[in-house]
Design goal:
By secondary structure, the chain is mainly α. It has two domains: 70 residues, Ubiquitin-like (UB roll), CATH 3.10.20.30; 147 residues, Orthogonal Bundle (Fumarate Reductase Iron-sulfur Protein, Chain B, domain 2), CATH 1.10.1060. It is 46% helix and 7% strand. The protein contains eleven helices and five strands; from the N terminus they run αβββββαααααααααα. Strands 2-1-3 form a three-stranded antiparallel beta sheet. It has a two-stranded antiparallel sheet with strand order 4-5. A hairpin with a 2-residue loop joins strand 4 and strand 5. Helix 4 runs antiparallel to helix 7, helix 7 runs antiparallel to helix 8 and helix 7 packs across helix 10.
């Protein structure tokens, strides 16, 4: 029996109006996210037998407003995602949409995200400092930005997007990676590379010089 089964049993026997969100019951939709014994996880993938003996506590994701019972309002994540400019095809992409296999593999990891938002729930910035929630995108959105930045055929300036999304505030504790049910190496493969690119853009004197040179050349060509 998994925790979601236990919740359904309680719902059927003792609390018919208990609100709980779920869809696939197979760990693929991310909708049954909750905190089981204080640890964020998917209820449909958390076996009761794997938990310590005794009472089991199940609570909604703490980083988000509670709608009712175990249902949290995660809509802010979709609102932030809507601000990110989607894939912008480069001239090369318009001519021939070809990519190296290593680029495909790197992007496939990021696209495995099921948007359970467990990474958002454990993020210290979002969890402990809700006053910064609007200005800080969080791990899930940093993965999305990284997927666009590392796409060889995307022409958008994702480094600037990451900077505006507050990636500098991430303290890389890897807690988001630890709870990801898809095993996405959020910190190592998405956040740290993006933080490095932001730092290079802002503080590397050579990068600044090349940027000024490119800008000047662009103005001359116009």
């Amino acid at each position: 029996m998994v925790v979601l089964d236990a919740i359904h049993a309680i719902q059927a026997a003792d609390a018919n109006d208990l609100a709980v969100r779920w869809n696939c019951k197979a760990g693929r939709c991310g909708s049954c996210s909750a905190e089981v014994n204080g640890r964020p996880g998917l209820m449909c993938m958390t076996r009761v037998s794997s938990l310590p003996a005794g009472a089991i506590s199940v609570a909604p994701l703490r980083a988000f407003p509670v709608i009712r019972d175990l249902v949290a309002d995660v809509s802010a994540n979709y609102e932030k995602a809507a601000r990110i400019v989607p894939f912008v095809p480069s001239e090369e992409a318009r001519e021939s949409f070809k990519m190296h296999e290593e680029d495909v593999e790197r992007l496939r990891e990021f696209h495995n995200c099921i948007e359970c938002f467990l990474c958002q729930d454990v993020c210290h910035v979002l969890r402990d400092h809700p006053e910064h929630a609007d200005a800080y995108a969080g791990p899930r959105l940093f993965v999305r930005i990284a997927a666009l930045e590392m796409h060889p055929l995307d022409a958008g300036d994702r480094v600037q997007v990451a900077q505006r999304a507050g990636i500098a505030a991430c303290n890389v504790t890897k807690c988001c990676t630890e709870v990801c049910p898809e095993g996405i190496r959020i910190t190592d493969n998405a956040i740290i590379p993006m933080k490095e690119r932001v730092a290079d853009r802002r503080h590397d004197p050579l990068a600044k010089m090349l940027g000024l040179f490119s800008a000047a050349r662009g103005r001359n060509e116009e």
